[in-house]
């Protein structure tokens, strides 16, 4: 049986506490009370998906912002900035709407954090189009490792909760979302050509972009996560005394990172250069699936699963890539595998939503409860 452990979170980011929360408190007051929190969460997520699809249409290979290429239309950058800020705002008010309407549920927690884990790939890929690849941009392989630093930052927070019972919201999230929204609008005003110029010497805006993301991950998020877990250890409040059990949530993500990186390094067709967007989407969706399972374990107060089913076919794919068997069909195989990962993750999400809805007698997108007659 599913035993839900009530959601506990700490948000100490000054930007969030002094600026965004007062703003969100004002926004939630104008929302109709019949509007379900899960619908708010899902709508915000779809704005990020829309951004991803919009930039994929105009800049599928991440080269539109490069010199000598047809640039993304100005209105797209304006729309991207507005949509990103709307998504960020809706992500901030969904919980407030749930408390306002007394409709907080475990399904809401899964919706919020489960979709947040998937959102990582969409906003990282979309903001990449600002700089793109090429001489004035960021190499697609570099962006691959940047993506993993963002994914690593996300799962760190949930690793904290798995061990301490409290979700310490990362500071980097609020800073990055506000910055990204503003940069989209600036790009619409000054054009992508403005990012070609160095800030100082050979230090470009693309380098600042990279330093900011890596800095948030390894200078802010990682030390704070380790400190919070160490503090729980000192107070004897850790939920898992075994070192193996404490670090178990990292096993599947680390294996996924190793497998996907081996694919990149052993690819006979340099697949990350040929199909970067599809490869990012595959990695980000597989990671979201692993993370959602961790979130379910947190909610149900159960042991984290050591391995995800997605890893087994990934092992087979990497072996085929290394052997050269897929040399003439690697791109097609990547597209098919990405499609399967997407369908598998959606199926998993729908199945869990149905199970939680039936268990707690709730509708996913409504404040009404189903009849028990």
UniProtKB/TrEMBL annotation:
Record's keyword terms, sorted: Acetylation, Endoplasmic reticulum, Lipid biosynthesis, Lipid metabolism, Magnesium, Manganese, Membrane, Metal-binding, Phospholipid biosynthesis, Phospholipid metabolism, Transferase, Transmembrane, Transmembrane helix
Family: Belongs to the CDP-alcohol phosphatidyltransferase class-I family.
Domain of life of the organism encoding this protein: Eukaryota
Catalytic reactions on record: 1-O-alkyl-2-acyl-sn-glycerol + CDP-ethanolamine = a 1-O-alkyl-2-acyl-sn-glycero-3-phosphoethanolamine + CMP + H(+); CDP-ethanolamine + a 1,2-diacyl-sn-glycerol = a 1,2-diacyl-sn-glycero-3-phosphoethanolamine + CMP + H(+)
Originating organism: Paramormyrops kingsleyae
GO MF term (any one): metal ion binding
Role played: Ethanolaminephosphotransferase that catalyzes the transfer of phosphoethanolamine (PE) from CDP-ethanolamine to lipid acceptors, the final step in the synthesis of PE via the 'Kennedy' pathway. PE is the second most abundant phospholipid of membranes in mammals and is involved in various membrane-related cellular processes. The enzyme is critical for the synthesis of several PE species and also catalyzes the synthesis of plasmanyl-PE, a lipid required for proper myelination and neurodevelopment, from 1-alkyl-2-acylglycerol.
Cited InterPro entries: CDP-OH_P_trans, CDP-OH_PTrfase_TM_dom, CDP_ALCOHOL_P_TRANSF_CS, CHOPT
A Pfam family assignment: CDP-OH_P_transf
Name of this chain's protein: Ethanolaminephosphotransferase 1
Gene Ontology cellular-component annotations: endoplasmic reticulum membrane; Golgi apparatus
Topology within the bilayer: Multi-pass membrane protein
BP GO terms, sorted: phosphatidylethanolamine biosynthetic process
Localization: Endoplasmic reticulum membrane
EC code: 2.7.8.1
Cofactor dependence: Mn(2+); Mg(2+)
Pathway: Lipid metabolism; Phospholipid metabolism; phosphatidylethanolamine biosynthesis; phosphatidylethanolamine from ethanolamine: step 3/3
């Amino acid at each position: 049986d599913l035993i839900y452990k009530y959601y506990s979170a700490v948000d100490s980011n000054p930007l969030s506490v002094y600026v965004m929360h007062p703003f969100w408190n004002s926004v939630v007051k104008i929302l109709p009370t019949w509007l379900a929190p899960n619908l708010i969460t899902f709508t915000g997520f779809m704005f990020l998906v829309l951004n991803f699809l919009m930039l994929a249409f105009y800049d599928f290979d991440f080269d539109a912002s490069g010199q000598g290429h047809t640039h993304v239309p100005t209105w797209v950058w304006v729309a991207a900035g507005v949509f990103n800020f709307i998504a960020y705002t809706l992500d901030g008010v969904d919980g407030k709407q749930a408390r306002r309407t007394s409709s907080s549920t475990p399904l809401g927690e899964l919706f919020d954090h489960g979709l947040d884990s998937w959102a990582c790939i969409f906003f990282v890929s979309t903001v990449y189009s600002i700089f793109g690849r090429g001489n004035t941009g960021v190499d697609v392989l570099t962006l691959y490792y940047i993506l993993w630093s963002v994914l690593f930052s996300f799962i760190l927070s949930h690793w904290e909760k798995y061990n301490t019972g409290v979700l310490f919201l990362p500071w980097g999230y609020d800073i990055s979302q506000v910055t990204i929204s503003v940069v989209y609008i600036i790009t619409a005003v000054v054009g992508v050509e403005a990012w070609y110029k160095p800030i100082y010497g050979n230090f470009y805006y693309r380098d600042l972009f990279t330093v900011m993301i890596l800095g948030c991950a390894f200078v802010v998020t990682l030390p704070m996560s380790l400190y919070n877990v160490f503090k729980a250890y000192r107070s004897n409040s850790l939920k898992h005394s075994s070192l193996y059990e404490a670090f178990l949530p990292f096993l599947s993500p680390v294996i996924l990172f190793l497998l996907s990186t081996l694919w990149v390094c052993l690819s006979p067709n340099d697949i990350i250069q040929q199909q970067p967007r599809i490869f990012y989407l595959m990695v980000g969706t597989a990671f979201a699936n692993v993370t959602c399972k961790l979130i379910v374990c947190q909610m149900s107060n159960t042991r984290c699963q050591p391995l995800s089913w997605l890893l087994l076919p990934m092992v087979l794919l990497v072996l085929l890539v290394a052997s050269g068997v897929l040399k003439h069909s690697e791109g097609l195989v990547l597209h098919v595998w990405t499609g399967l990962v997407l369908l598998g993750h959606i199926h998993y999400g729908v199945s869990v939503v149905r199970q939680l809805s039936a268990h707690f007698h709730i509708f996913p997108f409504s404040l009404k409860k189903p009849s028990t007659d």
